[in-house]
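Reviewers of the previous submission asked for a worked example of the structure-prediction workflow described in the proposal, so we include one complete record here. The input consisted solely of the amino acid sequence. No template or homolog information was supplied to the procedure at any stage.
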Amino acid sequence: MSALPLKPTRARARRAALVATAGLAAVSLLSACSYGSKSTATAAAPSSSAAAGSSAAKLSADTVHIGYFANLTHATPLIGIQNGQFQKDLGATQIKTQIFNAGPSEIEALNSGAIDIAWIGPSPAINGYVKSKGAALKIISGATSGGAELVVNPAKIKTEADLKGKKIATPQLGNTQDVALLNYLSTKGFKEDPKSGKGDVSVIRTDNSITPTAYSAGSIDGAWVPEPTASKLVALGAKILIDEKTLWPEGKFVSTNVIVSQTFLKAHPDVVEAVLKASVDTNAWIAANPAEAKKDANDALTVLTKKALSDKVLDAAWSELSVTNDPLASTLKTEADHSVTAGFITTPDLSGIYDLTLLNKVLAAAGQPAVSAAGLGAQ
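From that input alone, the workflow returned the following structure tokens.
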């Protein structure tokens, strides 16, 4: 597929849209929804981008609600929503977004109907599918591989044996990094209670936005977290004990999927297809324009978090991940095994968790090869 380079006029429009969206996001925080203890922010896509796409054919839904995180592992929606690519592909269908700290809260929002489509880690997607007996969601695309590390205080932890008795943070109970840590600890002989986090190692569930402060204050000794939080900790003096990529064959594992409510998929397949086209288009642009994409991701994070990443943190974090349309379905099976080992679920039946029909349609139209569900596709 050809890349989607941004012309200078579009780039200027995108910068203006970012400024406008910053104000909108600030206002929307006042009326944010709450899921558990995790607050979310809701905003419309930039109005200038909406106008640009308004000439497209009308789709079956007036609005689509999209959830994602203020993490670089969610680079596709961070960039594609802010620069207008998503709105261009969705035409007159308005985009409304909600920002989450971790996957379990996002699943709760999907189940309640507050969002329709979400970028999310594999473990919450697996748990949401299993707990609903296969009725709640479908994984419809890949998004990101890599971008998660266990970083620790080098004065206290030099080897895995030193983890005993220490406090290690994860973003949320049952999220992808939480499962990764608990699985790792189990394979190394540490005993843990997955729900309370108590055991040989104290697992402290901490919002990514405050993890660096907790580390600086000495409240935690390390964290298994996604980017850019891991690189923020490294900038504070932490060291990478485990780069999760090193635990996987060829260094590839699914860190972010795209999921959809089955109710929304059945009612509005054309809207879902448009979102997937936007995702594929954005990923192609990221691959063709990595330097500008990295800057755009930082611009989007600045809007959402009110603080830009330093060049040092941005460069380190960006180098840890890659965007992909491929859901890397074979690694999802392993992720499910990790959830079992961690004690969150019993051996699950993941038959039908994927529906890659629309994604492969979009890929075919773009001249790209189909991707596989590794035997876990819709029946």
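The radius of gyration is 20 Å. We consider this example representative of the routine output the project will generate in years two and three.
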